[in-house]
Design a protein that fits this description.
Distance between the termini: 35 Å
Number of domains: 4
Shape: globular
Helix content: 40-55%
Strand order of the largest sheet: 1-8-7-3-4-5-6-2
CATH superfamily of the largest domain: Phosphoenolpyruvate-binding domains
CATH architecture of the largest domain: Alpha-Beta Barrel
Largest sheet: 8 strands, mixed
């Protein structure tokens, strides 16, 4: 019995026979052309066909999978219609005399590379959207316009290098027991659609297709991100029992959708959602998010070749506020820096971008750009409970300067007769040790804190979280980090302000009881973590967890803390 490892993305276990999806690529080359008008017409005809296909897929997936998941195809339609992408393709054809296939490929790669240069996994994965759309147009141009899914006539586990969204829609949920791919990540469309369809899936499995043959029996263990090839009878028996237990757990979690988030001793705990795109809203609402604790606005800036206009941003913020129907919507202002390749911003390469001009520092440097965002946010604030959050604060002067700029924008809007919420709440991300240490000073200037654990851990431990050589230092259970978090919560409460958390640690069910004991007011997490978090809150008592906090803060290592919390 051989086993391979990958990333589990859609919870569950699958046992069955393998069916391999063979890869076929469109045969096209970089060719010089002479009739540019004809080539441009070829592209436009293919683009129109791609749009019709995507509209059909949107309607089909809306019926068979769900409205939220169908928005993947809405996003693809927007890419097909994108004028900046079309202009770059036109330049390739008319100026470079390239054939349409190659022009589409080059233009898509340009934009995809921009997204892949970003640190955020969700945004990097959107590069696949652009490539998927380009591949669709190229297939139409080359006449290879068919999906490559094998005929499924009996229950199986599909193995592939990757699966396109259009192929996922054609999958039969009754016949496909599981999906395993060499490519992909937690935020890829394969992951999103597999989860929505309730199909267990593992992605990012190196060497997958070299090890598998059609009709091999495999066990797909999403929990451990493991694929077992041709297991023995004892292993099969063990996993069949696990399948039964998982079904029991799934039904139990479904029961928490409409329950309030309250501890056993009656303390309400606010469970909010993180989002980077308005397309994520339905999923957050469906899973009972009580608000939006972090709206990452970087996506608006990194997916195009010019800055989003005030009107574009206003419409997105307005729609979000309206759909949340009075619930809190915390929108973080622009948080990018010198590690991002965004040509129109003209950002200088920095020797150490994570300690450079990023977050609020960049907002001050690119003040005209930031003011456009602030105008859009203030205009949208009358349509719901929007709150503004400032990223990467280190000193109190930054808070004061930001508030002064906001006062200038308010004065402008007032003079123009444009409505806004004059009492809009302003908060800060506490993600640097400097801000944590002077939390008392900053608290007197703002309405709320939100602890950004991802960067707080990185800066507290002086550990690049993307560097595998020192990954042992980067831990959510680090005693110094947990002591800082306790200090931030206590200080915020002493000054009468609410304290939330929007980093990865907020959705970790091992840490949620500890943070409840510390008095954290609000947890903001990814959609997939909400129901599990609600179940965790339902099973604990805040009073009992306060005693746990005392014990944890006496422990000396991350390992000791993790083991203690797992034993509860």
């Amino acid at each position: 019995m051989e086993h391979l490892l990958g990333t589990g993305v859609s919870k569950g276990i699958a046992i069955g026979s393998v069916l391999i999806k063979q890869e076929h690529t469109s045969d096209y080359k970089n060719k010089s052309i002479t009739d540019v008008e004809q080539e441009w017409e070829r592209f436009n005809t293919a683009r129109d066909s791609a749009k019709k296909q995507l509209e059909e897929l949107f309607n089909q997936s809306k019926q068979s999978i769900g409205e939220k998941e169908a928005q993947i195809f809405e996003a693809h339609i927007l890419i097909v219609e994108d004028q900046e992408l079309a202009e770059l393709i036109k330049t390739q054809i008319f100026n470079q005399k390239k054939n349409a296939e190659w022009a589409v490929h080059e233009a898509a790669e340009h934009f995809a590379a921009l997204l892949e240069s970003l640190g955020d996994e969700y945004i990097r994965e959107r590069a696949h959207d652009i490539r998927d759309v380009a591949a669709r147009i190229i297939r139409i141009l080359t006449g290879a316009d068919k999906h490559d899914l094998p005929e499924v006539d009996k229950p199986c586990i599909i193995a592939a290098k990757d699966l396109l969204p259009g192929e996922m829609v054609h999958i039969s949920k009754d016949k496909v027991l599981g999906i395993v791919t060499e490519a992909g990540s937690k935020t890829s469309h394969t992951a999103i659609l597999a989860k929505a369809m309730g199909i267990p899936a593992i992605v990012g499995v190196a060497g997958l297709l070299e090890k598998l043959n059609d009709s091999d029996t495999v066990i797909l263990d999403e929990v451990e991100g493991k694929i077992l090839i041709n297991p023995d009878s004892d292993t099969l028996k063990n996993y069949n029992r696990k399948l039964e237990l998982l079904e029991i757990k799934r039904k139990e979690l479904e029961g928490f959708k409409d329950k309030e988030s309250v501890t056993k001793d009656g303390v309400e705990v606010e469970l909010y959602g993180n989002m980077a795109s308005i397309a994520e809203l339905p999923g957050l609402i469906d899973n009972g998010a009580m608000g939006i604790g972090l709206f990452r606005t970087e996506f608006l800036y990194t997916t195009q070749t010019s800055a989003p206009s005030e009107e574009e941003q206003f419409q997105i913020y307005k729609q979000t506020a309206e759909k949340m129907a009075g619930k809190t919507v915390i929108i973080r202002t622009l948080d990018i820096g010198g590690d991002k390749e965004i040509p129109y911003l003209g950002l200088e390469k920095e020797e150490n971008p994570f300690l450079g001009c990023r977050g609020i520092r960049l907002c001050f440097e690119k003040q005209e750009l930031w003011k456009v965002q602030l105008r859009a946010l203030l205009r949208a604030s009358v349509y719901g409970n929007i709150q503004i959050m400032l990223p990467m604060i280190s000193v109190v002067e930054e808070v004061r300067r930001a508030k002064a700029i906001m006062d200038e924008i308010k004065a402008e809007l007032k003079s123009e007769g444009i409505e806004y919420n004059d009492g809009i709440e302003i908060g800060v991300m506490i993600e640097t040790p400097a801000a944590a240490i002077i939390a008392d000073v900053i608290a007197s200037e703002v309405d709320f804190f939100s602890i950004g654990t991802n960067d707080l851990i990185q800066y507290t431990t002086a550990c690049d979280r993307m560097n595998p050589r020192i990954s042992y230092l980067y831990s959510q259970f680090n005693p110094s980090v947990l002591r800082l978090i306790k200090h931030i919560i206590d200080t915020g409460h002493q000054h009468g302000i609410k304290v939330g958390m929007c980093g990865e640690a907020a959705g970790d069910v091992r840490l949620i009881p500890l943070f409840v004991g510390m008095g954290l007011d609000e947890f903001s997490m990814n959609t997939s973590a909400l129901l599990e978090a609600k179940k965790t809150v339902d099973q604990i008592s805040k009073q009992e967890m306060q005693k746990v906090v005392e014990d944890v803060l006496k422990l000396k290592t991350a390992q000791e803390i993790e083991e203690y919390l797992l034993s509860l």
